[in-house]
Amino acid sequence: MRKSNTQPLGEVLREYVRAMNMDHKLKEVDVVQSWEALLGKTIAGYTRNVYLSKQILYVEISSSVVKNELVMMREEIRTKLNELAGEEMVLKIVFR
What we know:
Layout: H1 9-19, H2 23-45, E1 47-53, E2 56-61, H3 64-72, H4 74-85, E3 92-95
Parallel strand pairs: 2-3
Antiparallel strand pairs: 1-2
């Protein structure tokens, strides 16, 4: 008779991600993907490129007016992104 060593798939995947040290990279991807959800489709429409490198979020903005508004909201955006991630993932936001 076989021994039953069953675990929920979600738990096995979480253990694998932790064992392979991929959890931090997955959180980085979540931060970048949450940009549109946080700021809305209108602002995201002016965004060309969003990426996170060494805890600095780089965002290319096609409109100078939108860029100026986002610069004034920079700290609030950073705080909300970190709250969504559950830890301090973004130390600084750079708008280009």
